[in-house]
Amino acid sequence: MFTNFFFELRQAGVPVSLKEYLTLMEAMKRGLAEHSVEDFYYLSRSCLVKDERNLDRFDRVFGHVFKGIGEPPPEGEEVPVADLPEEWLRKLAERFLTDEEKEQVKALGGWQKLMETLAQRLAEQKGRHQGGSKWIGTAGTSPFGAYGYNPEGVRIGQKESRHRRAVKVWDKREFRNLDDSVELGTRNIKVALRRLRKFARTGAASELDLPGTIRATANNAGWLDLKLVPERHNAVKVLLFLDIGGSMDDHIRLCEELFSAVRTEFKHLEHFYFHNCVYESVWKDNHRRGSERTPTWDVLHTYPADYKLVFVGDAAMSPYEITHPGGSVEHWNEEAGQVWLQRVLSVYQKAVWLNPVPERQWQYTESTRILQRLMGGRMYPLTLEGLDAATRELVR
User: Which of 55, 109, 269, 309 sits in a 20 to 30 Å window from 228, CA-based?
Assistant: First the structure.
């Protein structure tokens, strides 16, 4: 099994060497992981992964190879069997309403009313509830719960979004980092990004200056006089803010291609992740976003105004996430998203928003219209034409 794990990692593109594999075997021989799957996961990850960009690939291979292996019970103790209702196993909660039924479901009447009603339901409800239009449960039309439908509700416990209408999500969700090793599918997109390049020679003189050498040699009566100059580097500085998770899962491939291209084109690049809208903090690593965040104020004070700011996101969210304090689906934000967005834009005058959703669909989402207005119309589709227009705006 361990040998198969090694070859699966290499096949998935994780650069694992034989020496690292033998290190893991030696650690196992010394009993460092004992009988804990979790301990073995962290031990093997620390031995075999040298670059955090490969963590997601490692996790996928680990889950595939060791699928179904859990913690062994204590000696002499039987494994408990969960007594789950049959309807749960069949996921009867997966209910799809017709368009006519959806039209009949009414929102509660605004953000404050929604939060007040949720608090009241939590205080009154005593057990699990399925179906219906009032209690917190599954497969119903209540504004609170999972696997149902309501045009303006709070999703609780359901991992995936189905209708994308929730104004708040009570759940711990895991996002993964974008892979910057993905090759761009269309070379023309890379060419479009090159409009932002502005070369300058900085650093130590290490590159032969052929015209200068010829001129100096001629002036030196034919005696060779070598002239060196610093290498040319793209002097443009880019600050990239990437929306991650939720509805952006539909656009991961496209965003990875863009991310890969940007990493190769710009030497001075800083990137941060956010979810739906920028608030008081952003993060660099989705695996540690719960513990290692960067205050947005620190970003504004660290990177000067000559950085060109690029947002990448589908702008699809509840309007409350932009306009109201506490509107974030993941935490209670003291200030509205639009307040933070305006602060960021006040520092970085050269800023654009790239949207992977086709432009013809923007008019159907209120949050997209709000962000487009806050960006001063500088929202562009993530297409060849959109990239060309965005780069022209940034160099204007």
Answer: 269
Question: Facing residues of 293 across strands?
Answer: none
Residue 211 tokens read as: 């015209």
Q: Kindly report the pTM of this predicted structure.
A: 0.52
* Backbone dihedral angles phi then psi of residue 311, each to the nearest 5 degrees: -90, 140
Pairing of strands 268-274, 154-156: unpaired
CA-CA-CA-CA torsion for 147, 149, 150, 152, nearest 10 degrees? 60
For residue 113 the two structure tokens come to 């009313």
Task: Specify the residue for token string 């002239």.
Answer: 227
Q: What tokens does 54 get?
A: 């490969």
Amino acid at position 200, single letter: A
How far is 186 from 182, CA to CA, in rounded Å? 12
Give the pair of three-digit tokens for residue 11. 């096949």
Predicted confidence (pLDDT) per residue in 151-208, tens digit: 555 555 555 555 555 555 545 555 667 555 444 344 545 555 666 555 444 556 667 7
Identity of residue 393: E
pLDDT digits (tens, 9 = 90+) for 237-279: 889 999 998 888 888 888 888 888 888 777 788 999 999 999 9
CB distance 248 to 264 below 8 Å: no
* Cβ–Cβ under 8 Å, residues 356 and 362: no
282, containing H or E segment: strand 281-282
Report H helices in 311-362. 320-323, 337-347
Long-range residue pairs from 227-230, CB within 8 A, at least 24 positions apart, any chain: 229/201, 229/205, 230/201, 230/202, 230/203, 230/204, 230/205, 230/206
For the beta carbon of residue 220, count every other beta carbon within 10 angstroms: 10
